[in-house]
Amino acid sequence: MTHPVEIRFQPAADADLSGRAGRLALIVGENDRLPRGLPRPAHQALTRALGSKGWAAVKPGAAFEVAFPAGLAADAVQLVRLPARATVTEARKAGAAIGARMGKGAVTVVAGNHRLAAEIALGIALRGYDFGVYKSASEAEAATAAGDAPAVPPQSVSATGAAADALLADATAPDAPEGPANGSGPPQPDKASVTMLCADPESVARAARDGAALAEGIFFTRDLVNEPANVLTTTDFADRLLAMRELGLEVEVLDEDELARLGMRALLAVGQGSESPSKVVVMRWQGGGDAPPFALVGKGVVFDTGGISIKPAAGMEEMTMDMGGAGVVAGVMRTLALRRAKANVVGLVGLVENMPDGRAQRPGDIVRSMKGDTIEIINTDAEGRLVLADVLWYAQDRFNPAAMVNLATLTGAIIVALGHDKAGMFANDDALAADLQRAADAEGEGLWRMPLAPAYDELIKSRLADVKNSGGRSAGSITAAQFLQRFVRKDTPWAHLDIAGVTLPPGETALAPKGATGWGVLTLDRLIRDRFEQG
Length: 535
Prior knowledge:
Elements: E1 7-11, E2 23-28, H1 40-50, H2 53-56, E3 63-67, E4 76-81, H3 88-99, E5 106-112, H4 117-127, H5 137-145, E6 158-159, E7 193-198, H6 201-207, H7 209-226, H8 234-242, E8 250-254, H9 256-262, H10 265-271, E9 279-286, E10 294-304, H11 324-338, E11 344-354, E12 366-368, E13 374-376, H12 384-399, E14 403-408, H13 413-418, E15 423-427, H14 430-443, E16 447-449, E17 467-468, H15 476-485, E18 494-498, H16 521-531
Parallel strand pairs: 1-6, 1-7, 2-4, 2-5, 5-7, 10-11, 10-14, 13-17, 14-18, 15-16
Antiparallel strand pairs: 3-4, 8-9, 9-11, 12-13, 15-18
């Protein structure tokens, strides 16, 4: 898998900046004071830049670049505006401004005594992501020369002194085979080398530990979403999750025979037209004693053609991302294991492929869920809710969770409603919804609560079965949520996050290059910290 860039923390006091090769990034506060260690010609040139109209227009978290400044070995200097009282979001954006331009060489970041230096480091790591495993070396080098961030091999954040302990000892544990189907993918391009100069590097390194775990989890999610479907089959996906046993997670895979025995006929119906076998993977992190677990449930449709209700050809290549909910669940579980979270969390993902075939389910079919409800299939492209229905019921039946959140790239209707800036949240519990909203706001991830109401149940009434799987175009994301709510017990606090718009947006975001964002790992990790961590 792709791993975050290595960031080393060193003392800023009396650092000589004149001989630092590569790129130099200077964190500049509201007083526009430059750090010590700059030779006079560079100090004069950068002071002039700070007095320019260009710098005056730079907002907190953004940067202004000066190429080949006099008196410095560096090729370029980034002046990064970040007031002392900046927000966490602004600090991460400041790091992202550095990460987006760092290339493959040496980068020195002068953070001084800024209180959010660890958040700057997290921003550098997140924006430095590049899924370059399928590019030849020449293509990757061309992309880097154009200013794109590089792909980087396994590393961990480190520091000088006592904080130089192995930060993520398990982060480089072997994962399942990756690369093309024959397992012989090209190596990743060379990485950048980032050094952050801080007033107290050891304390910053300690503060950055959890951020490093988050970056690992987010990169894992992004990799899964970016993988092509001929590589990330249901079996390959399950194997990558099984490999996380080496991090301390308990992982088990339920195969089709076991799913049939459990009565998961709705889930199995989705995948019956595919050569890839349907699976459910259960991941458990037991860090909170005897407390009942918090459950995360993810939709893992590794490719979605729409089935017999086939999608238009244009844009279908993006349906490799229809396992985005399962990817987020996997990334959160990886993060929890790496940071040794003091909480009990179970992550369950339903892995299927929705293909048209002589065995595929048809519009008009009726299937029975694990709960026992019968479902009339109106549209085979409304398949994710069938997968989630069975996994949600199984999660409650087996684990009796304290609360439950599911994630799914479920409907195009949520993109019509909210675009690509916010995910849609539906919840049966106001307290859980409020906690999720606070967590998303704190982490800078867009989230908006949408309605649930009995009136919408009328749209999914079936003439022949207990419910139908699609109510048509009107209120499409709401009727999907209403369908899922049928499979949630009334005493279980539950939220459904429709992440169709934020999983693979059409362009880059503040903390990610164009491609998969890993949206949701930050929010759910924050929710677990605030609501479920013990001690």
